[in-house]
Amino acid sequence: MENFNFYSPTEFVFGRDRENEVGAYVKKYGGTRVLIHYGGKSALASGLIDRVKKSLDAEGIGYFELGGVQPNPKDTKIREGIELVKKTGVDFILAVGGGSTIDSSKGIAVGALYDGDFWDFYCRKAEIKRALPVGVILTIAAAGSEGSGASVVTKVDGGLKRDIGTDLVRPRFAIENPALTCTLPPFQTACGITDIMAHTFERYFTNTQEVEVGDRLCEAILLTMIKEGPRVIADPNNYESRANIMWAGTVCHNDIIGCGRSQDWNSHAIEHELSGLYDCAHGAGLAVIMPAWMEYVMHHDVMRFAQVATRVWGCQMNFANPEVTAREGICRFRKFLKSIGMPINFEELGAKEEDIPLLVDKLNPGEGWGFLPLKRKDVTAIYEIAAHATI
What we know:
Layout: E1 11-14, H1 22-28, E2 33-38, H2 42-45, H3 48-58, E3 62-66, H4 75-88, E4 92-97, H5 99-111, H6 119-122, E5 134-138, E6 150-155, E7 160-165, E8 173-176, H7 186-204, H8 212-234, H9 239-251, H10 266-278, H11 282-297, H12 302-311, H13 322-339, H14 346-349, H15 356-363, H16 376-388
Parallel strand pairs: 1-8, 2-3, 2-4, 4-5, 5-8
Antiparallel strand pairs: 6-7
Helix pairs in contact: 1-3, 4-5, 7-8, 7-11, 8-9, 10-11, 10-15, 11-13, 11-16, 12-13, 15-16
């Protein structure tokens, strides 16, 4: 196990009706004038935004609203938010939604205190030194952004999808009421489950030895998704299933399962180009890319793939030929994704094989990083596997 520091300062407020306490938590963390940032009509139609306003009113906290966040959050909406914050003197950003809304809020938080273009941070032209505080009311279990220092944003001009990572944008608090996720469509629920599993696998596939605690934590999350995925698709109003999925989404991405080990994140980088170009759901893109990545890199450490196949997918270990076990585990992963309604190849996702060179050019892989560092030819091969995948 490697040396590590683990810092997770977010206060998690979990359970039924906890969103009604949001005013007290904004006040606790110093907010006096809030930007309520949210996505589509559901937050309004469900009465959630009205409940948020009522709670803020009770604490004497002023607020402004900015809705309209889209999946794969756009730089244009963030610029609109930055302008509003600077104009009104907002001192606290409250994200009401899922990963896209939270990531957009983080972009506003760093851009509002910067004189230049906030995109400088996402393309690594500037270092983030300040950010407004962010709070969260989570409505989608998926991205884990409610407990992380990460934000991923799409630039409309060019379709570039880039990220930042800094503890300065870790939410001060995250209110998590699983009941708020019960109205999600099955496809969106399945995308969230896929993203949670991908976040877990990105940490599981490591070159660090003797990380049994981390391995077992990862395996527990994966087993939970295998159990709860089909259950919640069959019964969307199952609160306990929603609760397990929501907490797993948080735990898998505040990085406690990644402590003391190298991580990968190549699947996410490769997928970002798909959702950047086609505006597809991130989870759906991961369902296509991650098994393809697994097939391509498996030989780098076949025993690690065999380990997850036996411990998580229930495969029998073939000691004479561990590759057989490893491949069976990947096959079962792809079958699971298909069973919950996820695409497994380019055609089902809506991607085009002829666009692979463009996707590789946009990613522009160099020497690479992660479990197995990837160059252009490797990324091309992974896209090709993804294009033609079958069960």
